[in-house]
Amino acid sequence: MNLTARDRVAAGPAVRRAGRLVCAVLLCLCARTAQPQSGPAGAAIELSVAPTQVAGNAPYRLALLRVTVPAGQPLVRAVRLREAQGGPTILQPLTVPPESTQTALVPLPAWSQQHAYRVELLAEDRDDANAILPARQVALSWPADILDRDAVFAPWQYEPYQELPRWPAPLLRNVFLAAALFALACTGLLLVRRPLARSLLLIVLAALAGAGTWLLLDQAPLVVHREVARDGSSLHVLTSRRTVQWSVDQPLWPVYFNLRQMRDDSLVVHVGRATRLTLLPDDVRILRPGPPISR
Length: 295
Fold this sequence. Notes:
The protein is of the alpha+beta class and 295 residues long. Helix content is 26%, strand content 32%.
């Protein structure tokens, strides 16, 4: 349809009004989308430097943890914290009912003035408990005079332990003795004339040798060395021939060879209860006892 100039002039105001209406609708939609969605208020989590520090526990310093749980949220039983770059997982028991605020002193790794910690609120006081709310990243500034980076990354402390024997001498002796007996028994099978009987005896000997070797190797999967220095300080040096779960009823703090080892660390310090670690084959880990931290 062809419009004349007079028709286009007459339709101009209507087109402009329609355009203004469309713009107004779009602006309303944009404003509505930009508004935050309503929902239950999340818990407030704060970290600050504790006024009093525990001597001799560098680089793990005490922070004051403050958790506020509003109405309508589940009961909090524990708090799980970990430095954003890695390191041990700190499991701090802390009961916070809805509509209340609770505080606790929690040990955290600190080797630089600016740190960020991943914090999760848990409904159960367990390592594998699910978080009640999405994890928060909380920043904390530490005073420079209480930091000690050398207490975190100390590759020179690993040098004397890189060649730790993962097979104790008595165990190796028993394994070689079992292998010699198996070889001697296999040689004796040559005296058996019937092929079928010889094959059956060989299968029986192989099964017995395999079971015996498995029992020997399963006796000592973990080797723990405890070194005591002249000043009375001690180190726990752990190594394992296979993946093993290890725990001890005292707080132990890791010393790392490099940043990668810290990032992949599976150690969990359950404050006031135990230290747990998944040790992988051929791993060497150095842990250092620290002053006990009360719950």
